[in-house]
Design brief:
The protein is an alpha/beta fold. The chain has a single domain, classed as Vaccinia Virus protein VP39 (Rossmann fold), CATH 3.40.50.150. About 25% of the residues lie in helices and about 30% in strands. The strands form two sheets. Strands 6-7-5-4-8-9-11-10 form an eight-stranded mixed sheet, with helices on both faces. α1 packs across α2. The radius of gyration is 16 Å and the shape is globular. The protein starts with a strand and ends with a strand.
Length: about 220
Amino acid sequence: MHSFELFLTEDGSHSIFSAKYKVPYHSRHGAIIETNHVFIEAGLKPKLNQKTVNVLDIGFGTGLNAFMSLLESNKNASSIYYEAVEAYPIKKEIVDVFNYAALLDAAQDSFLQLHTLEWGQQYALTDKFTFKKLLNTFEDFTSQNTFDIVYFDAFAPSAQPTLWETGLLSKMYALLNPDGVLVTYCAQGQFKRNLKAVGFSIEPLPGPPGKREMTRARKA
């Protein structure tokens, strides 16, 4: 059984600890700070010069990546298509407690709908944000779409090693459009070597609080 323990990170935002994998979903230094630094600033914002941006979120988890991307879409002219895959959904009683909306000065209902919408269905949540989530492992994931960004937010290589190996990284590479990027909090040496082995070029970037470095990988 996949059970979770709620805790507060240092920026005041909630995260959870996975009993199954023995890892937290976010940095203890701040869930919102980490998500903004790794996925919004390093991943989404550089692509918002495009008319449409396709995002693949590997690890829907708490929904924070999707929620902050939705909020960012309200500030920009670009349209975002957002597809997320998740194998272990979080129970509603935990989701209801998350304080992201209050801290981000946004509507709680807007956050909660990301969790309550049906799996496998596509929804136009605004005129600039289209959302779809799939209840699946990435190993079994398929899509008719290609993407400009992969938010690679899986558990650490020590917890889910297969996701960080060349087989599934090749799958991510194939799903990206030319000049597409993969962004992740991880900067492990073997992981970066695996990225290079499947064709990515590596852009080491300063990490969020508590981490010296993060990774942005680009498809040639």
